[in-house]
Amino acid sequence: MDARAAATLGTVSPADPPVLLPRAITVPVVLACLAPILLRALGVDLGSTPLPNDADALALLRGAHLDDALFGLMRGAFVHLVLDWSAVLLALGAGVLALLRHSLRRDAVTAVLGLAMLGAGIVDAFHALVASHILLPAAASHGDPVALSWVISRAWHAGALTLGASIFVLWPAQAQRFGSRALAVVGLAFGGGAWLLVNVLVATASLPTMVHRGALVPRPWDLLPLVLYLVAAGIVLPRLHRQVPSVFTAALLFACIPNAAAELHMMLGAHRPFDSHDNAAHLMRLLAYGVVAAGLVIDYLDQHRRVHAQARDLAASVHAVGLLNKNLHRTVDDLEQFAYAASHDLKAPLRAVASICSWLDEDLKAGRMDDVSAHLTLMRGRVGRAERLLEDLRAYARLGRLAPVITTVNTGALVDSVVDVLAPPAGFSVTRSGRFPTITTARVRLEQVFLNLLGNAIKHHDQPDGRVVVRAEQGPDFIDFLVMDDGPGIPAEHRERVFVVFKTLRPRDDVEGSGMGLAIVKKTVEAAGGRIRLSDNVPRGCVFRFSWPKVWPKDEDR
User: How would you write 416-467 as a 3-class SS string?
Assistant: First the structure.
């Protein structure tokens, strides 16, 4: 569901599947959150504090090489330097990804929460500078600025996240009203607030006591961001995810787990800088930002897949429309031919019947009974011709509308069965040459093609001892079938005309037929994806060559 539409509606259909983070992310994150507790239970210390007190540090400096001693003492600071700035980069990167996603989808929810991430990245950068002793408040000499900057950065992140999500939870329609100006105001609010907060902290002359070493709750101030994360996870973000289901909102909700775990480590266990709980808390923060960034990346990939799927569907639709348009043009051409046939060929036998009825009336009135039988025979012939015309017309119109039955066909045996049905007269031979393969095709349609071509070759032959040869030539995808006769042939100027409905080269009184046989053949071959050509035979006669697919094509391939 589109984020803007979902935010405007404020609800999601119960039939829509829930949008969740993949297990490849959730399971490792949960295990990583539990890992510090399990490792401590096994006696593994994650801390990077080199010495428990200053006296031991001085002893180390006196008894070891100075460089090794200094690097040993700074090991914890180096670890935190990497963790802090990695978190800053992930926070800023997630914010930029969210804004890029907004530029692609115009998703105000993601944009506002991305701005909140950017603000959190700024305040986290302040904490990293304080932890590195690059930027210290004025009262740093008699306070604990690192612990304070941690609490402020975490509270700022949780508060900005909760505030940004609450806008769309409380006022869902705002998702449609957030234009560029509104986003600029939100960005200035988050960025300006972060800058103002940093400056106030740097200039403050009094810092509260942040760490109570040895107490049951050594860092009580971390309760504030913990409560904010719990509010976000329990109230605000679930409602937002229901209204705007996306992998990004699911990632924000799931990231509350490592965020809350980080605050629990700090509040209940971090007695000294760089101890086991302090390091675990920094790792949990980094993990939380990674979850959000991963959610955005997955959203990008899903969007990319959806766009490609839509492009494929659009291409398929365009192809389908092209096929429909092609079939429509073909139908229009057929209708024009049918209209012509109805006005000429179909009327001819009807006019003949009307004339014969007049002759019968005259004969009966005049008492000429000898002519009545001949007139009735002639009438039956004309009625039969009209019936054949209508049957062939119906067969022609049905081609392409009904899906054929596809079976395995031995083409050689098929040709032999057609010859048996036609029963050529004595002295007339029909033979095969070449290799006739077994293919998967529409048997009835191929049989109809051979019936018409072989039937025409026999019916229109001008000699009693004619010869017809059916040859098969193999191609990579098609078989070329050639029906070659030694009859009178067809002049070049009439070769296109013979494939038009109801067109015959000889009068129907000389050779009985509807004139639709070759039109049916042409339409049948083209419906299979092939083509038919007509050429001369040597020394006399003609050759009908048509290509037929070895495997019956799908509708979209034709």
Answer: HHHHHHHCCCCCCEEEEEECCCEEEEEHHHHHHHHHHHHHHHHHCCCCCCCE
